[in-house]
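Data availability (excerpt). The following record was deposited with the supplementary files.
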Amino acid sequence: MGNASGAAIISDRRITGLSANVVAELVTELHPLWHEQHQVKLASRPWKRAVGAGAKHRLVFVDRLLATLVHLRHTVTHDVLAGWFGVDRSTITRAIAEVRPLLAERGCTVSSGVRLRTLAEVIDHLGADGRTGIIDGTEIRVRRPAAGRKDRDRFTSGKSKQNAVKTMVVTDGDGRVLFCSPTRPGSCADITHARQLGLVKLLADGPAVEILADADYQGLGAQTGGRVITPPHRKFKKNTPDWYEEMHERQRKAHSSRRIRVEHGIAHLKNWRVLARHLGRREHMSDTVQAVARMHNLARYIKDGTVTDIDNGE
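Predicted structure:
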């Protein structure tokens, strides 16, 4: 049953969002890392018989990876995945917990052999290529903390009035996702999150980079020497002249049309249903968001300045 399920998942890209070639590349890269971690875990405890003796894994690494990808793409429950692969639910839970951090640590692929793992690397990459970066925050709905917890209100978003966590997404001018930050509770403001990530210091000490942002980041421009560009402020609140209203609207639309690509990038990320609404543990959200960003980038690459599909063989 497990082999049949694995073959069906690999053969249809709609199930994982990745082609068979990309899945094979992931297996080649991640299996040695997983095996090394497993051996370290075995060696860290006392044994009464030789290491490697006893029952073998019923769920091989390929199936562990596939189960994780299906869970991230469609939020299929662990019970259903256990039925597909013919194992116990706890085996699926343990497999996802092992593979998800490996996916998150890969880094966002921007070209052959180049991966970006930190915000500092993203700023350096944009500066080296003379590209414009775009930042925006996005919220992911999560379960409400249990009654009586002292930090229960921290996850209530002031914008959506729902329980959520927030991540900052960075794309280039083509809408290619370069970075997704670790998550913060929904009550954290976008500009506060950016400051906590060290964006101000990175822009002040790093290369000259143009970063486009929405009105939630107004104030960063003055702190970064104008490197963060936000929509123009309104100078008139009452009795606004017609000429100023027309100019302000034209500037606002021009700025919005330049930064709309980050909205497209976020929309593509949320095609992975686990980011539409997360029903699992909130402490896993940082790894989940970053793993999805890595998988989204693995399926695409930049060739001759154009974002194309890695499976086209171009």
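Summary of structural features: Residues 161 and 186 are 9 Å apart (CA to CA).
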